[in-house]
Amino acid sequence: MLPLDERPCNYHYPAMMPKTNCECVLPPADIMGCKKTPADTDKIAEWLMNSVATADALILSLDMLIYGGIIPSRLHYTDVDTLIKRADIVKKLKIINPRLKIYAFELIMRCPDYNTSDEEPDFYGTYGGAIHKYGKYSHIEKLRELTPEEKQDFEAVKSFVPTGYLEDFITRRKANIAVLMHNLEFIKDGTFDHFVVPQDDSSVYGFTAMDQISVREFLKSNTLHMKTAMYPSADEIGLTLLARAVSELNKTKLKVFVKYSSVKGEYLIPEYEDRIVGETVKYHILTSGCFQVYSMSEADIVLAVNAAPVALRRGDPNWTIPYDIERNLAEFVYYIKYAKSQNKTVAVADIAVLNRADVELTEILNIENMLYDIDAYAGWNTSSNTIGTTLCQAILYKIGGDKKGNIAFLTHRYYEDIAFMAEVRGYVSDNLAKKGLNIFEIDGVNGEISKWVYELVCEYMQKHYPSVAERVESVTLNMPWNRMFETDIKLKIK
Predict the structure, then answer these.
(1) Cβ–Cβ contacts within 10 Å for residue 301, how many?
(2) Fewer CB under 10 Å: which end of the chain, C or N?
(3) Nearest 5°: CA angle at 104, between 103 and 106?
(4) What is the pLDDT at residue 401?
(5) What is the enclosing helix (H) or strand (E) of 475?
(6) Alpha carbon of 304 to those of 328, 363, 364, 378, 404: distances in Å?
(7) How do residues 104-139 score in pLDDT, each as one tens digit?
């Protein structure tokens, strides 16, 4: 597997999944780059050339191969011809190993609607939101006449963003989409066995949506629907394709039944995504090599989706009322119990709250002694990140993954998604200013903040989830990108 970047979710999670009869081999860590510092693309290419001869399948991040990672893909000044030459080594991989199955993915470059230079060019820290608006109004203008208010706002944006910064952003987008369109040709000639275009931080209108239209028209005109997928996704896509590769190598096509915690949850559009949950779930199931069924009796896996019945907007004090009224967690948990009584593999995708576990749900699972009755769990980052992660775990475990490895990954998710993401991260973030720090830049990978997070995470799990903590012999923890968005937790299970 050539992962998207060196973050734990992309580099470590595949190796942490329950072991099957397939071994997942990753490149050496020292050639993977670090955040805005790109990986050595020449060494990446060399590693691929030396590794595929005996491989059955390759899960290939084209963003890593071509740009040296997801963040470098947003920052580079490399010309299109050079980028295409890097991509074209995939043809050589098929010559080295004609039987090699290649499951490739390449992102459409995102355009966030907020000001931050953490993962973008420096100018995005001041002009990011305005650049997003520029793309949004440019897109809407192609579809209909702008309202007077929209025209006024659009003109204000044009006046605000320096021409050089806008040109820099647009030029890079054009280069990246040109390379993506080139790589789509590899689907037609059979180089790629399956191709995914993940949409990172997508929205209905804007630069990303317009690029998406170009890709969709190509896929339609070449009737490539059965070999491709394009949906909100990013950091979990390596896991999704790992599940597909293992499924196909084992000649298995598992059937998945989906159960939602709320009726409206299936029809909600989550933050940073462009379509309802139910449609995205279908893409995840299909891309992972499975098939969605509509009765539990015929299913191998029950995907239990804890989906919010209302859009949870940050800072809105009133969301809890409809949230509580229009979902039934008791019924949801009873259904999970019933599914387990029917010997179904149960995966819980906890997407009710953005960027963290829904502690209301996990507390119920804890009280009911169900945290290790379920077979897979995730509740991190975006809706798609969570769905893809928990599906991969369930699929690999069902195919024959080891029980100890599955328990280890479940435990890891509880430490990370509940303790860190739902509880500790917010508390520490709120207190960083007192220390002269902020969420985008703390005091190092293994600094005092890392030690503080470690202490709070361990304390929280021992106090609130002792049945989980008692399974852990030791914990190590650091902050790999020197910020508060992710942590690298390593657990030694007893």
Answers:
(1) 27
(2) C
(3) 155
(4) 81
(5) strand 472-478
(6) 13, 16, 15, 11, 22
(7) 999 999 999 999 999 999 999 999 999 999 999 999
Domain 253-401: which CATH class? alpha beta
DSSP code for 418 = I
pLDDT of residue 310: 76
Cα torsion 252, 255, 261, 267 to 10°: value is 100
| Rounded Cα distance, 214 and 220, in Å | 10
25's torsion region: left (phi>0), alpha (psi -120 to 50) or beta?
Answer: beta
Q: What whole-number distance in Å separates Cα of residue 157 and Cα of residue 130? A: 6
By percentage, how much of the chain surpasses pLDDT 70? 98
User: Which residues contact residue 168 at a Cβ distance below 8 angstroms, ignoring those fewer than 6 apart?
Assistant: 121, 123
Would you list the DSSP string of 282-309? HHHHHHTT-EEES-GGG-SEEEEEE--S
Average pLDDT over residues 377-403: 96
The residues spanned by each domain of the chain are: 1-251, 253-401, 418-493
Residue in this structure with the two tokens 């893909």, named with its chain if needed: 73
Kind of pairing between the strands at 472-478 and 488-493 = antiparallel
Q: What is the largest CA-CA distance in the chain?
A: 65
Task: Give the pTM.
Answer: 0.95
Question: Under 8 Å CB-to-CB from 372, ≥6 apart: which residues?
Answer: 407, 410, 467
Per-residue pLDDT of 31-82, as tens digits, reads 999 999 999 999 999 999 999 999 999 999 999 999 999 999 999 999 999 9
Mean pLDDT on 286-299: 97
Tens-digit pLDDT profile for residues 151-184: 999 999 999 999 999 999 999 999 999 999 999 9
* Span 192-218, average pLDDT: 90
Give the residue from 393, 411, 412, 403 showing the smallest Cα distance to 246: 393
Contact yes or no for 113/132 (Cβ under 8 A): yes
Number of neighbouring beta carbons within 10 Å of residue 230: 17
